[in-house]
Amino acid sequence: MERKKSLGLYLASVTVILALVGIIAYLINTNTNYYAKLGVDSVMLLCGILGVLLTVVYILIGLKGTPMVADILPVAASVLFMVCTMFLLNVRINSLAAVFTFENSAANMADTTSCIVAIAGCALAAIFSIIMSFFDVSKAK
After folding, report:
1. Residue 3, SS3?
2. Most exposed: 25, 41, 47, 134, by fewest CB within 10 Å?
3. C-beta separation of 61 from 70 below 8 A
4. Quick one: 97 exposed, middle or buried, by C-beta within 10 A (0-12, 13-18, 19+)?
């Protein structure tokens, strides 16, 4: 049986891209001068990578059909992306407040750019993942 692509495929693809942007920006941020002392949060990284993997599995399964078992994948990915975002905010919020108030210099603001991109990428991935869970990846013709 032929299947045609649905809106869920495009939303899932955007979700994967946003999550990867957030994870890569976070890894770049952990190597900057100001944020290097905080290290890498392994829980945040693991949740983000697992969310990406679950979304990719959801896409691959959804292209072949839509079994009931696959309906849990976007929900689990949404939860993982939310946990990823919360852990990222937990680690970075005090440093962001310090940079925006007391330690405001050009170098610190440049280091903060990748932090803001990471937070935005992870938060948008969580939002798109929630929206994605309402749509199928493909539909029968």
Report:
1. strand
2. 134
3. yes
4. exposed
Distance CA 133, CA 23 (A): 21
What's the pTM value of the predicted model, to 2 decimals? 0.90
- The dihedrals phi and psi of 5, each to the nearest 5 degrees, come to -70, 145
Euclidean distance between CA atoms 14 and 3, whole angstroms: 21
**Helical ranges in the chain per DSSP H:** 7-29, 42-64, 72-101, 106-132
Residues across the chain: 141
Total Cβ atoms within 10 A of residue 52: 23
